[in-house]
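task queued by scheduler; priority normal; single chain, no ligands, no partner chains; default sampling; output format set to structure tokens
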Amino acid sequence: MAPYPVFTSVQVKNPDHPRAELAGIVCGWDPAHPDQIAVRFDVDGAEQAVALADLRKLG
């Protein structure tokens, strides 16, 4: 199971990440890469794998 369930609101907390401060929802994960989850960003609907260390849960 992923550390953040699907549909959890998250935000990129790493100021050096290209999507710093942007928010989105968890849309999936790949068990082969347990250190990342897929996020669908609110600003443009793009899906991107993001390292767990770069995210914080919102709400």
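post-processing summary
- The CA atoms of residues 30 and 37 lie 7 Å apart.
- DSSP finds no helices and five strands in the chain.
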